[in-house]
Amino acid sequence: MEKNKEILNEGLVSIVMPAYNCADFISITLDSVLEQTYKNWEVIVIDDNSSDNTDEIVKKYTKKDKRIKLHKQEKNFGAAVARNTAVELARGKYIAFLDSDDVWFPDKLTKQISFMKENNYLFTCTSYTKIDENGMYLNRTIGVRKQSTYVDILKKNPGNSTVIYNAEVIGKVNIPNIRKRNDYVMWLSVVKNAGMLYGMEESLASHRIRSGSLSKKKSNLVKYHWKVYREIENLSVLKSTYLIIYWVVVTVFKLR
Fold first, then answer.
1. What is the rounded CA–CA span in Å between residue 60 and residue 77?
2. Which domain of life is it from (predicted)?
3. So where are the chain's domains?
4. Could you tell me the maximum CA-CA distance found in the chain, to the nearest angstrom?
5. Which of 219, 218, 235 is nearest to 227 (CA)?
6. Phi and psi torsions of 176, nearest 5°
7. Residue 190's closest CA among 146, 159, 149?
8. What's the confidence (pLDDT) of residue 7?
9. 248: exposed, middle or buried (C-beta count within 10 Å: 0-12, 13-18, 19+)?
10. In which residue ranges of the chain is pLDDT below 50?
């Protein structure tokens, strides 16, 4: 019991949450943070100039719990800028990421921070499930490798809402301002500093599939993958082409 108390109270976790027009879901997402058994956290919500009442909903939460903080962008800059802004504002030893329509299981932080502390891991992720817009399980769970190198992440990036890294040791990581696949770039950047991404096989989060999400139309992402490989990671044409083909095949046949 004393060991559990120590784990629960050691190490502030800063939760990065970009938000844009997610009024229908962000209450559920924030509730999943409030229900965490790990209590030493802060949520940094970056409202990317939403046109709905996302900011009004978040403001109600900031009044209920001072650990929840809201920063509203003066214009819509995109998720990359929103994530970078939240990372800069983060005060925690650990930085975690949670999309504004996804959900954490109640013991997500307790189990993952314990996993990191006990093994001295700097960069971790977990398996996760897929849910629909109504929160119904889609009978699909995305597993993880126990260990992933930079090369492994080039082929398969972790679930955004499952990732935590130790900012106290590896420092804060910022990313280029690209509209899509910016989370992918962040994990590639973090693993260069951390050396390895360690995965927990247990599912501790759910990713919501929305009809209007940026990531839903996979065909539109090909050019962003190419941009990541060639312009940001400076990979060769041959290597980039191979990775594009690999990603398309895996995506079409749902091999992961």
1. 24
2. Bacteria
3. 2-211, 217-256
4. 55
5. 235
6. -65, 155
7. 149
8. 47
9. middle
10. 1-2, 4-8, 214-216
Separation between Cα atoms, residue 123 and residue 193, nearest integer Å = 9
User: Helix H segments across 10-148?
Assistant: 26-34, 54-64, 79-89, 108-119
Q: Tens digits of per-residue pLDDT, 43-89?
A: 999 999 999 999 999 999 999 999 999 999 888 888 889 999 999 99
Question: How high is the pLDDT of residue 214?
Answer: 45
Q: What is the pLDDT of residue 5?
A: 47
Task: Provide the CATH number for the domain formed by 2-211 in this structure.
Answer: 3.90.550.10
Q: What's the pLDDT at 218?
A: 60
Q: What DSSP character marks residue 107?
A: T
**CB neighbours of residue 128 within 10 Å:** 27
What Rg, from alpha-carbon coordinates, does the chain have?
Answer: 17
Using the Cα atoms of residue 189, residue 48, residue 204 and residue 59 in order, give the sign of their dihedral. positive
Amino acid identity of residue 27, one-letter, is S
The whole-number pLDDT of residue 2 equals 45
**Cα 217 versus chain centre, distance:** 19
Neighbouring C-beta atoms of residue 236, cutoff 10 Å: 10
**Residue among 112, 80, 78, 107 nearest 95 (CA):** 112
